UniProtKB/TrEMBL annotation:
The lineage of its organism: Eukaryota, Metazoa, Chordata, Craniata, Vertebrata. Residues 721-733 have a biased composition (Basic residues). GO terms for molecular function: mRNA 3'-UTR binding. This is LOW QUALITY PROTEIN: gem-associated protein 5. Residues 1125-1458 form the Gem-associated protein 5 RBS domain. Residues 1366-1375 have a biased composition (Polar residues). WD repeats lie at residues 224-247, 624-666, 667-709. Residues 24-202 form the Gem-associated protein 5 first beta-propeller domain. Residues 705-819, 1353-1393 are annotated as: Disordered. It comes from Lates calcarifer (Barramundi). InterPro entries: Beta-prop_GEMI5_1st, Beta-prop_GEMI5_2nd, GEMI5_RBS, Gemin-5, Quinoprotein_ADH-like_sf, TPR_GEMI5, WD40/YVTN_repeat-like_dom_sf, WD40_PAC1. GO terms for biological process: spliceosomal snRNP assembly. Pfam families: Beta-prop_RIG_1st, Beta-prop_RIG_2nd, GEMI5_RBS, TPR_GEMI5, WD40. Residues 376-692 form the Gem-associated protein 5 second beta-propeller domain.
């Protein structure tokens, strides 16, 4: 087993991918492997892996029960759930219960056999470990992000979803949803239960004291649940209440200096953990990797404490994904966290300090090398775009590593330390970049300006060669050499990397006089003394050159596949005869060692004397056999003589005794193939290896169980597979070098080997793994290290099958019959030659031989034209039979029969552009006919545009336009017509009209309007735009109509638009719309009055309406000025309308225009805003009449304005309006600013004035009553007060003004006594009229009830018919007057039950009485006389302002007309 190891990075964006058991064993899911790490307060150690599943680990959890804590469970992206034994490191069982990737898994802390998992589609599955049973639930159709089992109740599971929902389910009741916790608005990343039961822990907070006092002991048996979400909050939920009781917002912490690439953007991941036994302390992650400890009993900044504040390097530098805690035997509680920064950290929860950090790797380990100067300094080149430098000799921190990422945007595939300069590390990357880092400084690396086109395989420091070795002596003694996938070796000047690097191939060709192209280079190795360099090539050849001229000394042609690695034996503390040993590994599995000293008798102390001519070596010094796949790297032991370690694609590292050709030790601790190896510079027994499994492992040679590489158990299977699939074998052989290597067991599981599998499945797997582990990397994963070592030749050969597949099918022969005749037996073909010679050279052809016909059809090609024509005729017949009419057409074309060819193509529908292009050869008539035929063919193929274009070619313009029109291509038809025809062409208008109709039908009104405008139909254009009926459309339509001269339509549309704007209280825009039309002045005046009235009523709190926009002149102003005066002032200042204005602004002209505006009858169903419009319309009439000195019309219009508010049920608004019209209470005084007293002569005008004055007194009467009631602060019993109060209240509340918010109208001023002529309210004629109207209404209701009872009685549909039949007369709305209610009560008495005829006769009498009354009484009514009598008599109790004569008159009217029971009851105190 290995000593120390850097494991693969834990998987990102998983809610629970790591867990620790009670023994301190931490399990971490990385790729498809689970790494097991023993943790303590001082150190950690990777003790093993759980290997055996091929898909990504998405969740991991230990069983936390005694005796079973070694059992754990993992979930995977393929939907499977695996149970493992961490002691034996074996897979116990695997279940495929999910059909989708599993996103969360948890082992129940209560039930040792229950495991719950959830997948991305929302399926929750319960697994019973001891029986293997499963149960599936589907609580919510959402994506599950996390779940956690309750630590107190076995059947309760909390599930967090992607959309922020948290659901508590009961797994014992088929996943029944117990609660839905709503509050988060983004992904739920983590859920954790409080470790203790009860919900009294947080009630110590002052804000929750009320809740605490209200809780009973039975209700505190719930449990808190904490959740972390992407919305940057942690919420604490009460399960007994089903709601959040606390929200913790993440603090914004100033990010300390850390090694994080600023170009990488990461999203927030909020993980929460509730340590066991800590009732009020919760740990959560923060924005940039910080960990925060929350004290739930505190508030403000005292609530949270930052972990790791003792030094800057303690915290994670990027977001944290998982946390778990464990209590050790020494009573220390440790917290373990995994992060995007690829580090696992251990924290002491007592001191909040970081105990240790374990670095992890996020990609293949491509290169590892020890510094030759700094002892124990190990550099790692990793596929996660970072370099790690590990001080392996530090005793205090066993994993003392630093990461370098600046300037690196790709996988680090090659490393080389400077031989002399400490801390100078060169690196090469997958994207061809070469650079040098100073690892002891924080400076960014130096980057060479010369880039390779492909992956850098090898870096080596060596002596400079020309041209770099020329020049001043101050030059560096070392150059940096890089070899990359394109087969080029570049020499870089380390002191001037910005300069151009030189290609050593030029020097090699010049020195050795080589004219041919050199084989692409794949590796190089300088002899330690710097005098000889070995270069490996793609063709398997190894060339050894002498420095500095690079003269070729020898060529080793032992390998036949690409050279992957070369290593010279070291020259320190070893015999001189070993100094010239060169080990080489290629894509075949054999390692060769060559001793160059034996061949060239090189001096032991000086450089080797070169031979006169290069020698080719074909036999090795030693052959090391045992690996079963290609060799990727090797290293000589610095402590031994001729001891070599090699690593291979077979997944093992092998130590060899080279001189004895013996295998010493074989290491099998990795999962997958190995890529790099180095021997420890301080410990002869220790070797370090890295590979595909994202790990670096330290292991001892002496402790290995095996001595030889595993035997190829799968060789037979591989060969059989290749034999049955030769195409795949050929393809993969070209893609890689070695064939047929195999693998054997490694840690109980098979390791895949062989080139075929490695270059296909395993390499693509790396790309996938790198993508999973580094989802934030902006650089797409390029081809991997191994696949890039393929030769360019191999790449080209690989492409050949693809190009063959792309070859088109051989075209059909035009002369198939004659061609087939040339494929007869040899004897017949020879006879054809003799026959043809006879035809050509004799006057009489052989008997029966007619060239171009029959058996000699093929000879028509070699004879005269007549024979060729006969051959064409025979070929045409064959093509017709086969249905190849296009071939017949071409044959006719070739023979010159163009018209026949076109006719045949027309008949068969085979015309095309080519045939059409040659049609003019047959004449204009044929060409024209062909075009017309082709147009028909194109129309059948629905190519109308092309067909129209061809019609244009024969000057059939109208036909082309009609074709486009008939197929609804209006836009194209119009474009063609406008381009070719005059502007006044009737067809244009027809096209526009047709298109407009279609557009209007489809709802495209703007486009239709443009068509109407283009056709000159401006009226239709405005109408179609107005169909949308919104403000913007109406406004545009009005403007369009005005510009087009459609004055009447423009006015109509502008009015509609202004009314909509006025309804929305947008007064300014409404006036703007009307101002564009000079003839709409009177409507502007009307809107002006409406705006003034709305503003004043809103100011008096009668109505509550918010105005969108209003004019400055619409402010409420002084309440002592009548609204008529306000209107006149505004009209004169803003609109220029006064008594002296003339022309269109004259009052007479404006009044005439205003008469055209209709005003319907008032109704309670009309909205208040409309009521204001109609009321202000009459007010506008009255002001215009005032300007004309028409007093009678003035008073009538004022009465109508007040009547609109009164009759529509707006009592308070009506009262306020009367006060605004007549501030002094006298209707004959129309204005205070402009002295005006009304002079009325007509009966109707006088009646209107009396009615208006009566209602003014009526409202003042109520003001007096409210004033006295407020002063006395009590309300008397009886109808005299309550009934009237209820009546007023009902009028206000049911009249549609409830939006104002008041229940009754408040008194506008304080009145101590009646200062009005109350006699006007006690009109006997109006009392008689009102009594007759009440009687008629009562009789009508009783008749309706009798009709209803009669219609239901025969059918037997009523159980208690009488009661239900009486309901119309017994039940009234609260708006009915008291006497009506009394009448209803009277209807219940038996003595009032009358017949239908008697009721009809009574109604006729009342109607006759009503008809005898003057029309002015019915046209201009007064307030309810009986009601006014009751209020006046009530005044006698608290005021002496009512005269005796007035009281007597009121009593007389009550006796005469107050016949209803309720009125009689209320008037009894005054009449007795």
């Amino acid at each position: 087993m290995h000593e120390r190891s850097l494991p693969a990075s834990p998987n990102w964006y998983c809610s629970r991918c790591s867990d620790v058991n009670s023994d301190g064993l931490l399990g971490v899911g990385a790729k498809n492997i689970i790494y097991l790490i023993n943790v303590s307060a001082s150190s950690c150690r990777v003790v093993g892996e759980l290997v055996g599943h091929k898909d990504l680990v998405s969740g991991f959890s230990f069983c936390q029960h005694a005796g079973q804590s070694h059992v754990c469970v993992s979930s995977h992206s393929d939907g499977s759930i695996c149970f493992w034994d961490s002691h034996s490191k074996t897979l116990l069982s695997e279940h495929a219960a999910h059909q989708n990737p599993v996103s969360a898994v948890h082992w129940s802390p209560v039930d040792k056999n229950l495991v719950v998992s959830g997948d991305e589609k929302g399926i929750v599955v319960c697994h019973w470990y001891h029986t293997g049973d499963t149960a599936s639930f589907f609580p919510e159709p959402r994506t599950i992000f996390c779940l956690t089992c309750s630590p107190h109740t076995w059947n309760v599971v909390a599930v967090g979803y992607k959309d922020g929902m948290i659901v508590l389910i009961d797994v014992s009741k088929k996943g029944e949803v117990m609660q839905r916790l709503r509050g988060h608005d983004d992904e739920i990343h983590s859920l954790v239960w409080s470790p203790v039961t009860g919900e009294d822990t947080l009630y110590n907070r002052p804000e929750d004291s009320e809740a605490a006092n209200g809780e009973s002991a039975g209700e505190e048996r719930g449990c808190y649940l904490a959740s972390g979400s992407k919305d940057q909050t942690v919420r604490i939920w009460s399960t007994s209440k089903g709601k959040a009781v606390m929200t913790l917002k993440l603090p914004y912490l100033k990010k300390r200096g850390s090694a994080v690439d600023p170009g990488v953007k990461e999203r927030l991941w909020l993980n929460v953990h509730w340590p066991k036994g800590r009732r009020t302390q919760l740990v959560s992650s923060c924005f940039s990797g910080e960990l925060v400890l929350w004290d739930l009993t505190r508030s403000g900044k005292q609530r949270w404490t930052l972990l790791g504040t003792s030094s800057d390097s303690q915290n994670h530098s990027r977001i944290v994904f998982n946390m778990s805690s464990v209590h050790l035997q020494d009573d220390r509680e440790l917290l373990l966290s995994t992060s995007m920064d690829r580090e696992i950290k251990c924290w002491d929860l007592a001191s909040l300090d970081c105990c240790w950090t374990l670095p992890t790797l996020g990609g293949f380990v491509y290169s590892l090398t020890f510094s030759p100067v700094g002892a124990g300094c190990l550099a790692l080149g990793v596929g996660d775009n970072m370099i790690r430098v590990w001080n392996t000799l530090t005793t205090q921190n066993q994993y003392d590593t630093r990461s370098f990422w600046q300037g690196i945007k790709s996988k680090v595939t090659a490393l080389a330390w400077h031989p002399k300069k400490e801390g100078s590390l060169s690196f090469g990357t997958d994207d061809g970049k070469v650079g040098i880092y100073d690892v002891f400084s924080n400076k960014p690396p130096q980057i060479s300006s010369s880039y390779h086109r492909k992956t850098v395989y090898t870096l080596a420091w060596g002596p400079p060669v020309p041209p770099m070795s020329f020049g001043a002596g101050g030059k560096s003694s070392y150059s940096l050499y890089s070899c990359a996938g394109e087969g080029v070796i570049l020499q870089h000047d380390p002191s001037k990397l910005s300069g151009e690097a030189s290609d050593i191939d030029k020097l090699i060709r010049d020195t050795n006089n080589i004219k041919h192209k050199l084989s692409p280079h794949t590796d190089l190795s300088w002899k330690p003394d710097g005098k000889v360099v070995a270069i490996g090539n793609e063709d398997g050849c190894i060339d050894v050159y002498q420095a500095p001229s690079l003269k070729l000394l020898c060529s080793i042609q032992q390998h036949h596949k690409i050279i992957n690695t070369l290593r010279w034996h070291h020259d320190h503390s070893s015999p001189p005869e070993l100094h010239c040993l060169l080990a080489s590994g290629s894509s075949n599995a054999i390692v060769y060692v060559h001793d160059l000293l034996l061949h060239y008798r090189w001096e032991e102390t000086t450089h080797c004397t070169p031979p006169e001519s290069p020698v080719v070596l074909t036999e090795p010094y030693r052959r090391l056999c045992g690996h079963t796949a290609k060799i990727t790297s090797m290293a000589w032991s610095p402590h031994h003589e001729a001891r070599l370690v090699t690593v291979s694609y077979d997944g093992t590292a092998q130590v060899w005794d080279v001189l004895q050709e013996e295998a010493v030790s074989n290491y099998r601790g990795h999962v997958g193939y190995l890529l790099c190896v180095d021997w420890s510079p301080v410990d002869p027994d220790v070797i370090w290896t890295g590979g595909k499994d994202f790990t670096v492992q330290e292991w001892r040679v002496s402790k290995q169980e095996f001595t030889k590489p595993p035997k190829g158990k799968k060789m037979a299977e591989l060969r059989e597979k290749k034999r049955t699939n030769p195409k795949q074998k050929k393809k993969n052989n070209k893609a890689s070098g070695a064939g047929g290597a195999a693998a054997s067991e490694m840690n109980g599981g098979p390791v895949t080997g062989g080139e075929k599998i490695v270059t296909g499945q395993e390499l693509s797997a790396e790309d996938e793994e790198d993508e999973v582990s580094s989802t934030s990397s902006p650089v797409p994963p390029p081809a991997t290290f191994e696949i890039q070592r393929k030769s360019t030749t191999a790449a080209k050969s690989k492409d050949k099958p693809d190009t063959n597949l792309l070859k088109k099918k051989k075209p059909r022969s035009m002369l198939p019959i004659s061609t087939s005749m040339d494929h007869r037996p040899k004897e017949e073909l020879l006879q054809d030659c003799i026959t043809l010679a006879s035809v050509k050279h004799t006057s009489v052809p052989p008997a029966g031989c007619v060239p171009g016909q029959g058996e000699h059809i093929h000879l028509g090609l070699f004879s005269d034209r007549q024979a060729l024509q006969r051959m064409f005729e025979s070929e045409e017949e064959g093509h017709v039979e086969a249905g190849h009419y296009d071939s017949v057409v071409y044959l006719r074309l070739w023979s010159g029969d163009v018209e026949g060819a076109l006719q045949l193509a027309t008949e068969k529908g085979e015309l095309n552009d080519h045939l059409l292009s040659i049609a003019p050869m047959a004449g204009f008539k044929v060409w024209s006919q062909t075009v017309e035929a082709y147009v028909k063919q194109l129309c059948l193929q629905e190519q109308y545009l092309k067909a129209a274009s061809h019609l244009l070619s024969i000057n059939k313009l109208y036909e082309a336009i009609d074709l486009l029109h008939s197929h609804k291509l209006y836009r194209e038809a119009i474009a063609l017509a406008k381009a070719r025809l005059p502007a006044d062409e009737p067809i244009l208008k027809e096209l526009y009209s047709s298109w407009a109709a279609v557009l209007e039908k489809d709802g495209h009104f703007s486009a239709a309007a443009k068509c109407y405008l283009a056709s000159g139909a401006s009226f239709d254009a405005a109408k179609v735009i107005a169909r949308k009926n919104d403000v913007s459309s109406l406004r545009a339509a009005a403007s369009l109509a005005r510009i087009s001269g459609e004055v009447t339509l423009a006015q109509s549309l502008a009015l509609r638009c202004a009314k909509d704007l006025a309804a929305a209280q947008n007064w300014v825009e409404a006036q703007e719309v009307l101002s564009s039309q000079e003839s709409l002045l009177v409507h502007r005046l009307h809107l002006c009055v409406t705006e003034l009235l709305s503003a004043i009523l809103a100011d008096s709190v009668v109505v509550s309406q918010s105005s969108v926009s209003s004019h400055p002149w619409a402010s409420p102003g002084d309440g002592h000025i009548s609204i008529q005066d306000r209107v006149r002032v505004v009209w004169e200042e803003q609109f220029g309308v006064s008594q002296t204005s003339a022309g269109h602004h004259s009052a007479r002209a404006l009044l005439q225009e205003l008469k055209s505006v209709d005003s319907p009858a008032p109704s309670a169903s009309i909205p208040f805003r409309q009521v204001l419009l109609y009321s202000s319309l009459h007010l506008t009439h009255s002001v215009l009449s005032w300007l004309l000195d028409d007093d009678e019309q003035l008073i009538k219009e004022l009465w109508q304005a007040v009547a609109w508010l009164r009759d529509s049920g707006h009592f308070c608004a009506s009262a306020e309006f009367c006060r605004l019209l007549f501030p002094d209470g006298d209707v004959t005084v129309c204005s205070g600013k402009h002295p005006k007293t009304l002079h009325l002569t007509g009966e109707e005008a006088k009646a209107a004035a009396n009615s208006l004055q009566a209602f003014v007194h009526y409202h003042r009467l109520y003001e007096c009553w409210w004033s006295i009631s407020a002063r006395n602060q009590k309300i008397h019993n009886g109808l005299s007060v309550s009934a009237a109060g209820d009546e007023v209240n009902d009028r206000v509340m049911n009249g549609g003004i409830s939006e104002s918010g008041e229940s009754v109208c408040p008194p506008t001023r304080r009145l101590e006594k009646l200062d009005l002529d109350a006699s006007l309210l006690l009109s006997e004629s109006h009392a008689a009229c009102q009594a007759a109207q009440r009687s008629i209404r009562e009789i009508q209701e009783r008749l309706a009830a009798m009709v209803l009872q009669h219609s239901r009685a025969p059918g037997g549909q009523l159980g208690s018919g009488e009661k239900q039949a009486d309901t119309p007369t017994q039940i009234y709305s609260t708006r009915e007057s008291p006497d009506r209610q009394g009448s209803a009560d009277a209807g219940k008495r038996p003595d009032d039950q009358e017949s239908f005829l008697s009721l009809s006769s009574k109604m006729s009498e009342h109607q006759k009485q009503l008809a005898d009354l003057p029309e002015t009484i019915k046209m201009y009514p007064h307030p309810d006389v009986v009601e006014c009598c009751l209020i006046l008599l009530h005044f006698t109790k608290s005021s002496t302002s009512v005269s005796e004569s007035l009281q007597q008159e009121a009593k007389d009217l009550l006796r005469k007309y107050g016949s209803s029971p309720s009125v009689l009851k209320s008037s009894r105190p005054f009449l007795t």
